[in-house]
């Protein structure tokens, strides 16, 4: 009989507490289950699986060095566990807790029922800084610090198991059809560790000043987000490495102040990562329903389908918006400010219900993390009831973040003949007729009028008599204790805008 370690979003051997604990309890069978039904869900895509598949190849090799390679099975989890039980391979089940999408939540309920039926103990170990069962937000940050400050667990030695290892399927074998990404980031723990090292030694120096720029963020950001999302490196490993670097910079030296500011900023985003996942853990319905019910019916799923398709294709006629979307489609990654702008434009200017563009973005982000994603989608759509209504001006954002137009010219080459002075607003150029309406579309909305109309609609809800009571309850349950927000019916304090930044 074996202790089965079920790998999910934790594709590593270093700092894998369930693996270590299982090895202390008995013989270990490391297992990954390719769940075919999961990969047919609307929020999953080719780029997710391809990243995972690369990570699984490396994970199998790393586990082989420990003594027993990874076993891979394809199918329903309960069916796989039944098969292992029938073969005498399972005495206990170990895994990290998972805050995934609704599908994985329902699957975990089925696995829990199966374990109880067969008297098999399922040991679920806390992952990241998300608390289960749910606790009050009071003291949450201190609990995070304590959990992330623990020692990194080393890989255990594993006796070999006589069992067929199974094959790692391709995305085509799984019939995943959406979201191929030509130049996405590579999977695996080695890639994650190399990124962490280069970020802390070289690339991260200008993180604070560069993370909002679509030009500089690609290098200055850590680029660890897909690795953290799929678990090829643990949050604890990242946190402790950052702390170690911060200690090394305590003695004044040339350039150390810039480094210290950047690392302080990055460290805060590690906290925010888990803060947002905790929201979905505490209230799984935010994947589907407005956090604040006052916004129910304000936008309707299925409305403005043409606008949605134009937005997805990078054909809105708003150059900076389209450049960001095309960059994302090609690379599977985008810096956070631009992510927020894309979602805000979809929600406010195009007046789309957040669920549909949210699904599109979920498939496009290689680093898709449901807890962060759906919390952020709602925040940028103004439906949380507790966050600042932030309606980005897409033209101003372009001028601020791409003042010379280098980014736009690369990703919207149709505008090559438009003079620099009008690149962000090509409809104002004297030669606009050469391009607009043929090579590139006219704007599908008047961005100023659309923003004004959206602001009026959203604030009409906020000013309603029943808004405040529910918003107070949401703040108490989900709000940061550092945000300074005491009366959510009024404009949040500046401190709450920290929620606009995450580790990417």
Radius of gyration: 24 Å
Percent in strands: 5-15%
What is the overall pLDDT average? Answer: 92
Q: What is the N-to-C succession of helices and strands?
A: EHEHEHEHEHHHHHHHHHHHHHHHH
SS class: mainly alpha
Summarize the structure in words.
The protein is mainly alpha-helical. The protein has three domains: 125 residues, Rossmann fold (3-Layer(aba) Sandwich), CATH 3.40.50; 90 residues, Serine Threonine Protein Phosphatase 5, Tetratricopeptide repeat; 216 residues, DNA Cyclobutane Dipyrimidine Photolyase, subunit A, domain 3 (Orthogonal Bundle). 46% of the residues lie in helices and 5% in strands. The protein is built from 20 helices and five strands. It has a five-stranded parallel sheet, sandwiched between helices. Helix 10 packs antiparallel against helix 11 and helix 11 crosses helix 16. The longest helix has 27 residues. It is globular, with a radius of gyration of 24 Å. 46% of the residues are buried. The C terminus is likely disordered.
Outline the fold blueprint:
Layout: E1 3-7, H1 17-25, E2 28-34, H2 46-66, E3 71-74, H3 77-86, E4 92-96, H4 102-117, E5 121-125, H5 140-148, H6 189-201, H7 207-210, H8 217-220, H9 225-230, H10 235-248, H11 256-282, H12 305-313, H13 319-331, H14 336-349, H15 355-364, H16 370-381, H17 394-401, H18 406-411, H19 447-462, H20 467-478
Parallel strand pairs: 1-2, 1-4, 2-3, 4-5
Helix pairs in contact: 10-11, 11-16, 14-16
């Amino acid at each position: 009989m074996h202790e089965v370690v079920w790998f999910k979003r934790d594709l590593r051997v270093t700092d894998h507490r369930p693996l270590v604990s299982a090895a202390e309890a008995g013989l270990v069978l490391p297992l990954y289950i390719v769940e075919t039904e999961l990969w047919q869900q609307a929020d999953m895509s080719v780029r997710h699986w391809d990243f995972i598949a690369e990570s699984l190849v490396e994970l199998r090799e790393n586990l082989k060095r420990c003594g027993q390679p990874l076993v891979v099975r394809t199918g329903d989890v309960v069916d796989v566990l039944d098969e292992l039980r029938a073969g005498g391979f399972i005495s206990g089940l170990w895994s990290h807790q998972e805050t995934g999408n609704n599908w994985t939540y329902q699957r975990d309920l089925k696995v829990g029922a199966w374990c109880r039926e067969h008297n098999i103990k399922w040991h679920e170990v806390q992952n990241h800084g998300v608390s289960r069962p749910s606790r009050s937000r009071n003291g949450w940050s201190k609990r995070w610090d304590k959990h992330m400050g623990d020692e990194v667990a080393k890989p255990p030695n594993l006796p070999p198991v006589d069992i067929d290892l199974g094959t790692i399927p391709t995305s085509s074998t799984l019939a995943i059809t959406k979201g191929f990404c030509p130049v996405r980031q590579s999977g695996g723990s080695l890639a994650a560790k190399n990124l962490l090292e280069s970020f802390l030694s070289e690339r991260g120096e200008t993180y604070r000043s560069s993370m909002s720029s679509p030009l500089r963020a690609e290098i200055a950001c850590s680029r660890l987000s897909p690795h953290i999302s799929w678990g090829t490196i643990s949050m604890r490993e990242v946190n402790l490495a950052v702390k170690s670097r911060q200690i090394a910079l305590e003695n004044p030296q040339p350039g150390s102040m810039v480094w210290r500011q950047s690392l302080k900023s990055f460290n805060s985003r590690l906290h925010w990562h888990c803060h947002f996942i905790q929201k979905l853990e505490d209230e799984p319905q935010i994947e589907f329903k407005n956090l604040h019910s006052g916004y129910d019916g304000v936008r309707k799923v299925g409305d403005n389908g043409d606008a949605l398709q134009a937005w997805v294709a990078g054909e809105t006629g708003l150059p900076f918006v389209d450049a960001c979307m095309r960059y994302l489609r090609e690379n599977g990654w985008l810096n956070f400010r631009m992510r927020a702008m894309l979602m805000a434009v979809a929600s406010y200017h195009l007046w789309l219900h957040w669920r549909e563009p949210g699904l599109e973005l979920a498939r496009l982000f290689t680093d898709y993390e449901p807890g962060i994603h759906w919390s952020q989608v709602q925040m940028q759509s103004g439906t949380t009831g507790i966050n600042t209504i932030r309606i980005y001006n897409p033209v101003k954002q372009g001028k601020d973040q791409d003042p010379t137009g280098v980014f736009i010219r690369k990703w919207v080459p149709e505008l090559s003949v438009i003079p620099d002075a009008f690149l962000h607003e090509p409809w104002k150029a004297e030669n606009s007729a050469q391009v607009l309406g043929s090579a590139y579309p006219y704007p599908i909305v008047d961005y100023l009028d659309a923003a004004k109309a959206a602001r009026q609609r959203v604030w009409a809800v906020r000013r309603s008599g029943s808004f405040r009571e529910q918003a107070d309850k949401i703040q108490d349950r989900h709000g940061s204790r550092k945000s300074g927000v005491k009366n959510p019916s009024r404009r949040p304090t500046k401190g709450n805008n920290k929620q606009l930044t995450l580790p990417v």
